[in-house]
Amino acid sequence: MTETEPTAAAAEPGGDAAPVRRSPVERRILAAALRLFAQRGFDGASVQGIVEAAEVTKGALYHYFDSKDALLYEIYHSLIARQLADLDAVLAEGLPPREAVRKVLTGLILSTAEHVDEAKVFSREWHRLDDARMHAVRADRRRYHNTFRALVEQGLRDGSFTTPTPADTVTIVALGMVNQLPRWYRADGPKPAADLAAEVADFILAALD
Fold this sequence. Notes:
single chain; mainly alpha; 72% helix
């Protein structure tokens, strides 16, 4: 998920994305919250309902998460944390721009498809976040957007890509396609996520030429 559309302990808003710590109780609470947010929407899912579905006490829930907002934010942050870690791993390999763009795009699509329920809930409910958490969401997305754009700019400078289209437009189109994926992708659909990822990467790289 990226800046083109407005994932430790439960991460604090404004902190850097990092591997997400999960105790068994946290996992149960987050799984129950995700299920109820998907079924009933953010407003329709009560704290009491989440507690009952997770089979924990309210005290246990509030030990890890201070509100429903915190649960919604953590659902998002767990996803973007993984995606930013994947992005950093690709950058650390020092690949040529073409290979790096392909690897970033395929990894992002596969991650989004694997966690499509989280992405779907967040895309529908993100506007419920408070100002501090919204600021953190936008900062994570901006970092991903800017890093991907820098890869495209590098390829334009060294001749790997020859399109006259500005890097910012390429970034908006490429990442915007991924942002729309939760609206229509189904894990049991006719096209495996790996095939979809390869096709999207081929399409973007062809456009860059």
